[in-house]
Amino acid sequence: PLADDLADEMEDVDFDEEGAEEPDAEAWETEDDEGVEDGMEPQDDSEVTFSLHSASVFCVSLDPKTNTLAVTGGEDDKAFVWRVSDGELLFECSGHKDSVTCAGFSHDSVFVATGDMSGLIKVWRVETKEEVWSFEVGDLEWMEWHPQAHILLAGTADGNSWMWKIPSGECKTFQGPACPATCGRILPDGKRAVVGYEDGTMRIWDLKQGTSLHVLKGQDGHQDPLTCVASNQDGSLIMTGSVDCHTKLVNSATGKVVCVFKMESVAPKAPAGEGEEAESNSVESLGFCNVMPLAAVGYLDGTLAIYDLSTQSLRHKCQHESGIVQLLWEESSAVVYTCSLDGAVRLWDARSGKMISEYRGHSAEILDFAVNKDASIVVTTSGDHQAKVFCVQRPDR
């Protein structure tokens, strides 16, 4: 792999720039040195580095009200709430005994919730830094706050989705099939939620009644586990992504599939030799653009596909060197952000399919990221035990 890394780095070097070779040449020599943290990539474009985690940092969220606080959770069984401006620790969300894989603030930034893999969920009041509620469920798959209320929704490996009022703890469960509820999203109306399951089915739940409004299975569902779900701004359309590499567009009112986007394999898959794994691909992340009828889908093979919803066709394919972990749209423009296994954040213009800019600084893959409301900063978490804050103000603003 080192040789490949070198080849990639060679491509990135602009030999026309005077002295461009110097820092890179140096980095190559020290690549094998112990204690060199940035062996993979010497440049660091970040403004702030948060380094209190002692293992991979799995998740990050920004507080929605002020965008001044971040919460990060990691493999070290820890979660921290810290200031984005200077990386200053506000408080630790202590008491987890397993990797913290979910963390997020309530819609008004009053509460922060942290959830670990074993299913222990804790909620803290941000202002007082006090734990106000905790609950234990089965192995946790995902967790999300309600967009307008102090209500928390979570999906577990036994197929159930749980809903709690915070901090009273009143509880409701939505029983799915007997397989993990792999992903979920509360729709913008706050009355329904869409949940995807490992058996390829998808359900739209009525949160008040506790009943399932629509079930997509068989031909309408996916052939493999669902990996991600999203809805457009008014909640009329739902998009589901799966290990089967298909993305389905669903009318949330009727539960009918509007269209299916299939990613053709880039190359015919050669049968894997002994000890070799077959090249696998899957949909890893997806989202709707707020200002144009566009949707973005990120694949494990590094393809970012921009689909035109009005013509239901592929508009652009933006290739990454390595797998896309997550993508997010800017709130008020046709710019989509990706983070990938090569440790970089990239901004793409969805209208032209061209890359606008690229930010580096992590020495391992980026595992999660968040963009603030005015799209001026990106906060990333990585396998290198760090979280970073990047300023992404663009010249065209």
From TrEMBL:
It is found in: Cytoplasm. Residues 1-46 are annotated as: Disordered. The keyword Nucleotide-binding does not apply. InterPro entries: Apc4-like_WD40_dom, WD40/YVTN_repeat-like_dom_sf, WD40_repeat_CS, WD40_repeat_dom_sf, WD40_rpt, WD_repeat_multifunction. Keywords: Cytoplasm, Repeat, WD repeat. Residues 288-366 form the Anaphase-promoting complex subunit 4-like WD40 domain. One of its GO terms (cellular component) is cytosol. It holds the Pfam family ANAPC4_WD40. It comes from the Eukaryota. WD repeats lie at residues 50-92, 93-134, 188-215, 317-358, 359-397. CDD domains: WD40. Transmembrane segments: none annotated. SMART domains: WD40. Plays a role in angiogenesis and cell migration. In smooth muscle cell migration, may act through the RhoA pathway. This is Angio-associated migratory cell protein.
